[in-house]
Backbone:
């Protein structure tokens, strides 16, 4: 608990999106099993974070104002909203989904203006190559997770609340896109103009793709909601265009990240061992699966339908390996030799 990584809610993010993908592919046993596991994981992590903030407030808030660790707190926002989506899809509980939307939005507001204000006004700041990681894009993922859940709930709410909630989802979608442009520009600059070692290529760099995947999903949801909101219908070409832009950008990142992974582990011989940050690499694969499947339906692109099953298989395999790593780590720490 004392040294709990702030980004550990990525476990819930990854499990939730793989569960949703399984549900979309008609695998209810896997989907519900992961849903139950996710509820337990969310409760455990929430309790540990609350206890850590009470028992070790110095460490907790020092992490929140740290350039490398602070953005990891945004995983709590995305985890809440993804769990809300699971509640709506699998438990058919609109009330639970709404509670998670309110909770996620409250966390997003508090964390956004606490973390970014602290990073702006603090005196001692690291150089760009030391302080910037792919984890910064979790701020984008958290923003878009609110847009996805709000758009999903909007299709269930009665009018006129449906109109306002769709506008809220649209606003969050646009803000998330703008935030991605800001941050990815710095990340690409860091990639190409600073020395890069295997240690620097941490698993959260897969969020480069995951942030675009969840932006694609939010755009597809908004396109599907156009009959319920006239202002969305008037923006339909814009919504479709940017949804494809996000999907194409996320797709571009996949080969690049695979090549960098080969360079890290095969060429530079960086050891492959369990790290909580690897959940941040599982999440993008699951999200790309769900986003591509939904975009193919929303934009009537049937030629994309063979792609999601392939990526889903990779996401499920990655989740299984990460879970085995987590279980092995827990056993190693908890079991003492006689």
Residues:
């Amino acid at each position: 608990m004392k040294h709990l990584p702030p980004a550990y809610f990525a476990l819930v993010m990854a499990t939730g999106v793989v569960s949703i993908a399984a549900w979309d592919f008609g695998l209810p046993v896997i989907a519900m099993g992961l849903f139950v596991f996710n509820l337990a994981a969310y409760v455990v992590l929430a309790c540990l974070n609350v206890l850590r903030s009470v028992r070790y407030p110095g460490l907790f808030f020092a992490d929140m104002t740290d350039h490398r660790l602070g953005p990891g707190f945004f995983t709590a926002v995305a985890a809440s909203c993804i769990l809300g989506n699971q509640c709506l899809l699998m438990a058919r509980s609109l009330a639970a989904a709404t509670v998670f939307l309110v909770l996620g939005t409250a966390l997003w507001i508090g964390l956004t203006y606490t973390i970014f204000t602290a990073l702006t006004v603090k005196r001692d700041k690291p150089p760009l190559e030391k302080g910037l990681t792919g984890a910064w894009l979790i701020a984008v993922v958290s923003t878009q997770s609110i847009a996805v859940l709000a758009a999903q709930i909007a299709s269930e709410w009665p009018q006129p609340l449906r109109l306002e909630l769709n506008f809220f989802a649209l606003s969050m979608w646009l803000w998330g896109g703008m935030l991605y442009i800001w941050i990815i520009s710095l990340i690409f600059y860091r990639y190409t103009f600073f020395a890069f070692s295997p240690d620097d290529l941490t698993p959260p760099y897969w969020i480069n793709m995951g942030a675009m995947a969840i932006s694609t999903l939010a755009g597809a949801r908004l396109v599907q909601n156009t009959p319920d909101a006239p202002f969305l219908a008037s923006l339909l070409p814009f919504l479709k265009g940017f949804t494809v832009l996000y999907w194409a950008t996320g797709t571009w990142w996949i080969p690049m990240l695979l090549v960098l992974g080969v360079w890290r582990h095969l060429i530079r011989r960086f050891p492959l061992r369990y790290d909580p940050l690897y959940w941040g690499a599982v999440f993008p694969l699951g999200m790309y699966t769900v986003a591509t499947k939904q975009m193919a339906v929303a934009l009537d692109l049937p030629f994309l339908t063979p792609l999601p099953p392939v990526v889903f298989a990779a996401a499920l395999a990655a989740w299984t390996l990460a879970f085995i790593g987590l279980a092995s780590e827990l056993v190693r720490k908890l079991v003492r030799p006689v």
